[in-house]
Amino acid sequence: MPKRHYPRLLKESKSVTLGVNNTYASPTVINFFPPYYTCFLAGCQIVFGGTFGTGETATAKMDLLYEDGTMSSIEKSATATGTITLLEVDLFSLISPDKRIRTILLYGKSNMSSTNVTITFLLRGWYI
Length: 128
Fold this sequence. Notes:
5% of the residues lie in helices and 55% in strands. With 128 residues, the protein is mainly β. The chain has a single domain, classed as Hypothetical Protein Tm1070, Chain: A. The strands form 2 sheets. Strands 2, 3, 5, 6 and 8 form a 5-stranded mixed sheet that branches. A 4-stranded antiparallel sheet has the order 1-9-4-7, with no helix packed on it. Strand 5 and strand 6 form a beta hairpin. The longest helix is centred in the C-terminal third of the chain and has 7 residues, at 88-94.
Protein backbone atom coordinates (compact mmCIF):
# COMPACT_ATOMS: atom_id res chain seq x y z
CA MET A 1 0.00 0.00 0.00
CA PRO A 2 1.46 3.43 -0.93
CA LYS A 3 2.50 5.77 1.86
CA ARG A 4 0.00 8.56 2.49
CA HIS A 5 1.04 12.15 2.82
CA TYR A 6 -1.35 14.35 4.73
CA PRO A 7 -1.54 18.12 4.36
CA ARG A 8 0.96 19.97 6.51
CA LEU A 9 0.52 23.49 7.85
CA LEU A 10 2.29 26.20 5.88
CA LYS A 11 3.22 29.10 8.15
CA GLU A 12 6.16 31.07 6.78
CA SER A 13 7.63 34.42 7.71
CA LYS A 14 9.97 35.53 4.92
CA SER A 15 11.89 38.78 4.76
CA VAL A 16 13.01 40.04 1.38
CA THR A 17 15.94 42.13 0.23
CA LEU A 18 14.77 45.43 -1.23
CA GLY A 19 16.07 46.63 -4.53
CA VAL A 20 16.53 50.35 -5.07
CA ASN A 21 15.81 52.81 -7.89
CA ASN A 22 12.52 51.01 -8.63
CA THR A 23 14.29 47.72 -9.43
CA TYR A 24 13.47 44.48 -7.65
CA ALA A 25 16.30 42.66 -5.87
CA SER A 26 16.75 38.89 -6.25
CA PRO A 27 13.72 37.03 -4.90
CA THR A 28 13.30 35.03 -1.73
CA VAL A 29 12.21 31.60 -3.00
CA ILE A 30 9.94 28.92 -1.53
CA ASN A 31 9.94 25.64 -3.52
CA PHE A 32 7.58 22.71 -3.13
CA PHE A 33 9.05 19.25 -3.69
CA PRO A 34 7.80 15.71 -3.03
CA PRO A 35 6.18 14.49 -0.92
CA TYR A 36 4.44 17.89 -0.86
CA TYR A 37 3.78 18.75 -4.49
CA THR A 38 2.04 22.07 -4.07
CA CYS A 39 0.52 24.39 -1.52
CA PHE A 40 -2.88 25.81 -0.86
CA LEU A 41 -2.30 29.48 -0.06
CA ALA A 42 -4.99 30.56 2.40
CA GLY A 43 -3.67 33.96 3.41
CA CYS A 44 -0.88 36.48 3.20
CA GLN A 45 0.09 39.61 5.07
CA ILE A 46 2.80 41.99 3.93
CA VAL A 47 4.51 43.91 6.72
CA PHE A 48 6.25 47.14 5.77
CA GLY A 49 8.67 48.17 8.52
CA GLY A 50 11.78 50.20 9.12
CA THR A 51 11.90 53.89 8.25
CA PHE A 52 10.45 55.46 5.12
CA GLY A 53 12.20 58.45 3.60
CA THR A 54 10.34 61.52 2.37
CA GLY A 55 8.55 60.60 -0.87
CA GLU A 56 9.55 56.94 -0.59
CA THR A 57 7.31 54.18 -1.89
CA ALA A 58 8.14 50.54 -1.19
CA THR A 59 6.58 47.78 -3.28
CA ALA A 60 6.18 44.11 -2.44
CA LYS A 61 5.57 41.53 -5.14
CA MET A 62 4.59 37.86 -4.98
CA ASP A 63 4.86 35.56 -8.01
CA LEU A 64 3.34 32.10 -8.08
CA LEU A 65 5.08 29.78 -10.53
CA TYR A 66 2.93 26.83 -11.59
CA GLU A 67 4.08 23.37 -12.68
CA ASP A 68 3.17 24.14 -16.31
CA GLY A 69 5.56 27.14 -16.33
CA THR A 70 2.89 29.84 -16.18
CA MET A 71 2.99 32.52 -13.52
CA SER A 72 0.64 34.90 -11.71
CA SER A 73 1.64 37.99 -9.73
CA ILE A 74 0.38 40.56 -7.28
CA GLU A 75 2.00 43.80 -6.12
CA LYS A 76 1.20 45.99 -3.11
CA SER A 77 2.82 49.32 -2.27
CA ALA A 78 3.14 51.45 0.85
CA THR A 79 4.42 54.91 1.75
CA ALA A 80 4.52 54.31 5.53
CA THR A 81 4.99 51.42 7.94
CA GLY A 82 2.06 49.07 8.38
CA THR A 83 0.57 45.76 7.35
CA ILE A 84 -1.38 44.98 4.19
CA THR A 85 -3.55 41.86 4.34
CA LEU A 86 -4.32 40.28 0.99
CA LEU A 87 -8.07 40.04 0.74
CA GLU A 88 -10.01 37.12 -0.63
CA VAL A 89 -10.41 38.96 -3.93
CA ASP A 90 -6.60 39.40 -4.10
CA LEU A 91 -6.00 35.69 -3.49
CA PHE A 92 -8.67 34.65 -6.00
CA SER A 93 -7.10 36.86 -8.68
CA LEU A 94 -3.67 35.40 -7.87
CA ILE A 95 -4.39 31.67 -7.54
CA SER A 96 -5.30 29.44 -10.48
CA PRO A 97 -7.57 26.72 -9.05
CA ASP A 98 -6.68 24.05 -11.61
CA LYS A 99 -2.87 24.38 -11.40
CA ARG A 100 -0.27 23.29 -8.86
CA ILE A 101 2.00 25.91 -7.34
CA ARG A 102 5.64 24.79 -7.60
CA THR A 103 7.42 27.93 -6.40
CA ILE A 104 6.59 31.16 -4.59
CA LEU A 105 8.88 34.10 -5.38
CA LEU A 106 8.86 37.12 -3.05
CA TYR A 107 10.35 40.49 -4.04
CA GLY A 108 10.76 44.00 -2.71
CA LYS A 109 11.84 47.36 -4.11
CA SER A 110 12.02 51.05 -3.24
CA ASN A 111 11.78 54.05 -5.52
CA MET A 112 14.75 55.65 -3.70
CA SER A 113 18.50 55.21 -4.31
CA SER A 114 18.89 53.76 -0.79
CA THR A 115 16.37 52.53 1.75
CA ASN A 116 15.84 51.64 5.40
CA VAL A 117 12.48 50.00 4.71
CA THR A 118 11.93 46.31 5.44
CA ILE A 119 9.35 43.98 3.92
CA THR A 120 8.25 40.69 5.47
CA PHE A 121 5.70 38.30 3.97
CA LEU A 122 3.60 36.24 6.39
CA LEU A 123 2.18 33.28 4.46
CA ARG A 124 -0.26 30.67 5.69
CA GLY A 125 -1.95 27.69 4.15
CA TRP A 126 -1.20 24.00 3.65
CA TYR A 127 1.42 21.92 1.90
CA ILE A 128 -0.44 19.27 -0.08
